[in-house]
Model the fold of this input.
Amino acid sequence: MSKRTDYTININGTLMDFNRPKVMGILNVTPDSFYAGSRKQTEREIAARTKDIVEQGGDIIDVGAFSTRPGAEQVSETEEMSRLRHGLGIVCREAPGVPVSVDTFRPDVARMAVEEYGAAIINDVSAGNINGAFGSANPIAPTGNAIPGKTKADGAPSPETATSIPPMFTMAGLLGVPYILMSVRATLHEMIKGFAADINMLRAAGVKDIILDPGFGFGKTVEQNHALLAETDKLQVLGLPILVGLSRKTMIFKPLGITPDGSLNGTTVLNTIALTRGASILRVHDVRQAVECVRLVGLSEDF
Done:
């Protein structure tokens, strides 16, 4: 069993430590997220989901308005902001004081969420790439290369921008909030190299608090996802907390021949493995079960 990185992050002026792993509850204000149970759009649905996350022991609420599932509609920045304003207003009303992370790859959307609603964390699945999770043969381009209008047709960085600091990195530094850095790299070796380079750029942009997300389900086969899970503890060489988002994903339901709806038990199994591999945050649809998992694994760690 691997011990977690001893690390704290600044959440709106309050330090959050990871002596006990935290649970991040997913709230998607979208009509098309891959797991139907996570889609909340009406005021009543969003309020009920917010209350459920808090009452079931969730530590962070992760609000997203742009689905990254394969084949999802690419909504405009205006539509993403509109959805988030609707959702964040309800979340802040129903759960004042509970840290909120905003799941977006767009710098101006992140600014709006932080400045208008006090979002405490930026959760960026694109690793700073302004093009986000769409738009090229490689769904999310390699990190550290995204400047609008400065990429080659195949999505690879042009030489003059390959070392530029991505706009989202700069925005996170300006806003002074923690940033979740995700990787689409398929092997641990390449992931650590990519993370190291991006961490340097984030530090240069003034970002003080960084959380690493191995990106389960992004740019990886089922087999690569499971191989990475077995080695997640090795990411601790970078000295930063690790977020694991496995909830109801393909790496669970495909090997079992089931659907996302039937993947709760498999999610709990893999969340347990993730905790023994040093995960500091579990990003989940099913908060109560994840909280129970944290508590029971914590009892085992005490012996």
Summary: Residues 132-162 have pLDDT under 50 and may be disordered. The chain has nine helices and ten strands. Strands lie at 8-11, 14-17, 22-28, 60-64, 100-103, 121-124, 179-182, 210-213, 243-244, 281-284. Residues 64 and 103 are 5 Å apart (CA to CA).
